[in-house]
Amino acid sequence: MGDFEYRPDLLGTDVTGGVSHWVDCGNTSMNKVAKAVRRFPRARFALFQENPQKARRLRQDVEAEVRESADVDVLGWPAGEFPRWCALLGEKVEIFGEASGVQMNLVVNEQVFATDFQRF
């Protein structure tokens, strides 16, 4: 990422060290998203919100303020799932499993957790 002024909450890289996945959770500025999309045009961008209402509003903001808005996935936790997720997290977090598309099938601190995000 070199001298880029912003950092995501989660970053994935390809075998060459290039940015392949950019993930932000919760509040994020549209300026940050717009600049990141322009800087890393081959990356997959995913923005997560804690509920469908916030995700819907974020999608509207992305469409209004990010020229390449179609390149940005906005995903919302289904109603009630985010608090359930938070309850599994502790000071130490151990996660195993898989995430693909809009699904997560995990074992979090020895508890099974599976959910399907809603795409907006």
Kindly describe this structure.
The protein is globular. The longest helix is centred in the middle third of the chain and has 14 residues, at 52-65. It has helices at residues 30-39, 52-65, 81-88, and strands at residues 10-13, 19-25, 44-49, 72-76, 95-100, 103-108, 111-116, 118-119. It contains three helices and eight strands. It is α/β, with parallel strands linked by helices and 120 residues long. The mean pLDDT is 95. Strand 1 (10-13) and strand 2 (19-25) form a beta hairpin. The strands form two sheets. A five-stranded mixed β-sheet has the order 1-2-3-4-8, covered by helices on one side. The chain has a three-stranded antiparallel β-sheet with strand order 5-6-7, covered by helices on one side.
Record the SSE blueprint.
Elements: E1 10-13, E2 19-25, H1 30-39, E3 44-49, H2 52-65, E4 72-76, H3 81-88, E5 95-100, E6 103-108, E7 111-116, E8 118-119
Parallel strand pairs: 2-3, 3-4
Antiparallel strand pairs: 1-2, 4-8, 5-6, 6-7
- Mind telling me the C-alpha Rg? 15 Å
C-alpha termini separation: 28 Å
Order of helices and strands: EEHEHEHEEEE
Tertiary shape: globular
Secondary-structure-based class equals: alpha/beta
Uncertain spans, ≥5 residues at pLDDT below 50? none
Strand percentage, roughly?
35-45%
Largest sheet: 5 strands, mixed
- The count of strands amounts to 8
Task: Give me the side-by-side strand order of the main sheet.
Answer: 1-2-3-4-8
- Helical percent range? 25-40%
Q: What's the average pLDDT?
A: 95
Number of helices: 3
